[in-house]
Amino acid sequence: MGSAEGIAEVKKELLQSCLEGTLSRHSTQGAHGVNYHHPYTGTVGYSFFMPTMSLIGVGSINSAGAQIQELGFKKALIVTDKGLVKVGEVEQITQVLDTINVKYVIYDGVEANPTDKQVEEGVALLRKDNCDFITSFGGGSPHDCAKAIGVLATNGGKIQDYEGFNKTKKAMLPLVAVNTTAGTGAEITRFAIITDTSRHVKMAIVDWKVTPTFAVNDPVLMVGMPKSLTVATGMDALTHSIEAYVSTISNPVTDASALHAMKLIMTYMRPAVHDGLNLKARDMMSYAEFLAGMAFNSASLGYVHAMAHQLGGFYNLPHGVCNAVLLPVVEVGGPKAGVLSDVVEGRGPDLQEFNAESVPHLFIDIAEAFGHRDIGEDANLAIKRVLEDIRRLRRDVGVPKNLKELGVKPEDFELLAENAMKDACGLTNPRIPTKGQVIQLFRNAYEQ
Ligand SMILES: NC(=O)c1ccc[n+]([C@@H]2O[C@H](COP(=O)([O-])OP(=O)(O)OC[C@H]3O[C@@H](n4cnc5c(N)ncnc54)[C@H](O)[C@@H]3O)[C@@H](O)[C@H]2O)c1
Ligand SMILES: [Fe+2]
Predict the structure, then answer these.
(1) Which of 78, 84, 202 to mutate to test the pocket of ligand 1 (most atoms within 8 A of CB)?
(2) How far apart are CA 370 and CA 366, in angstroms?
(3) Which architecture characterizes domain 26-37+227-448 according to CATH?
(4) Per-residue pLDDT band at 24 (split at 50, 70, 90)
(5) Residue limits of the Fe-containing alcohol dehydrogenase-like C-terminal domain (predicted)?
(6) Helix (H, G, I), strand (E, B) or coil at 203
């Protein structure tokens, strides 16, 4: 036992028994300290990913020029969409570049749920115009498309080559991500979600080398968001925070980010939806989406996203709306969740929830972040409150009721479930479902 490996093994055992000892006084509390209800999960530590710098808060776009200048870039490929060019919003970034005499060319072909074809168009323009950096301007779609363009610019090949975890060999081209929605968190994350047009699936490229160089989150750029976009993107951020909190690889840093994001969203989402010019609400929703992005960027996501990506890729539906419809079903079951017992061997008819059944204590923390002070250690009460709150919020802000309303077809559930099971986001769900269960979750979301 004198060898280096022997000593390392003893240290590992000591650490494990020490952590499990802490937990032995309580079935779930302890591993993440101060009353969070996470169980102990391992001895290999955690990774935490973030851009080295972010500009955030009212007026932060005004500081972007100085930072770009400091990095010494010469010519930008601005990646954006036609909507933002049409309303003149894109001038918020062109003016910054004009002021510091940095040249640019605009690629505005990005559409919601960006595709492999749009990535290729962007790469062609970038090469033709010899751009030495990229600036994405918009919501998650321009940021993701820009990341994929940046990857191909330095690594070559096609974007399908980088689907999955850490497949790139070289850093992507530098990316300044200026965000206009609240939001996907894509402006700070190591995820790029691109639709493969031949397979009709959204590929998840998860790679720390696609993290933007720096991000700008100025709520002034978000006040023009129409109501439906504020709803979809706010529900996306709420989903990020909940999925990150119940993820199997959450840690105290991501916990803190996720719980505070939930608190802000439950306080400021309604005001942001009902009065888009409420700058305080926009500002707080911008912090919330940033915090939720910080949380899932390292803790990853779960089956809401794994399933939502299939709906987005197959029917070209807005990402946040898909999440909003699926969220209560995957996290805390649907009104017909009991029928899951038909497909889960050995389960009684009392099965009421999906993820919540695996990690009920985590819902105590979520219910507290939602503002409930009377939960104590009652996980069932917490699950009930969380479900009621999500449903009430969805009603108040006008989320479509179910997948039927979105035009989804039950005959596609088998294929959608098969693809959802291959999505990288599902790996950290607190519970890995069978294909039959995923189909049933789609059915529940169809009829809820
Ligand atoms: N990479 C990640 O970490 C990550 C995380 C979640 C979602 N996503 C992806 O992000 C995409 C969705 O992004 P999104 O929801 O931000 O929307 P989006 O980027 O698809 O934009 C949707 C529409 O909103 C308009 N818009 C954007 N900002 C506006 C503003 N301030 N005012 C008025 N109109 C505005 C755009 O012109 C566009 O027409 C999906 O493809 C999803 O898969 C990525
Ligand atoms: Fe998302």
Answers:
(1) 84
(2) 6
(3) Up-down Bundle (1.20)
(4) very low
(5) 230-330, 349-446
(6) strand
387-399 mean pLDDT: 94
pLDDT for the residue numbered 328: 86
Which ligand neighbours the alpha carbon of 304 most closely? Answer: 2
DSSP H stretches of helix in 247-302:
252-274, 279-299
Which helix (H) or strand (E) element contains residue 214?
A: strand 214-217
Distance 125 CA to ligand 1 centre (A): 22
Q: Three-state SS for 26?
A: coil
Is this prediction's pTM over 0.85? Answer: yes
pLDDT surpasses 50 at 153: yes
Compute the residue count for the chain: 448
Q: What is the bridge-based pairing of β-strands 53-56 and 214-217?
A: parallel
Residue nearest (by alpha carbon) to ligand 1 atom 7: 184
Q: Which residues pair with 382 in a beta bridge?
A: none
Ligand 2 centre to CA of 172 (Å) is 22
Segments making up each domain of the chain, as ranges: 26-37+227-448, 57-222
C-alpha atoms less than 13 angstroms from C-alpha of 340 in its C-beta half-sphere: 27
CA dihedral 306, 312, 313, 315 (to 10 degrees): 130
The confidence score (pLDDT) of residue 415 equals: 96
Q: How many CA atoms lie within 13 A of 263 on its CB side?
A: 13
What is the crossing angle of helices 227-246 and 252-274, to 10°?
160
- Tokens linked to 50: 């973030």
CA distance 285 to 196: 31
67-111: per-residue pLDDT in tens?
999 999 999 999 999 999 999 999 999 999 999 999 999 999 999
CB-based contact 446:326 (threshold 8 Å): no
One-letter amino acid for residue 439 of the chain:
I
CATH architecture of 57-222: 3-Layer(aba) Sandwich (3.40)
Rounded distance from Cα 184 to ligand 2 centre (Å): 5
Compute, in angstroms, the gap from residue 186 CA to the centroid of ligand 2.
8
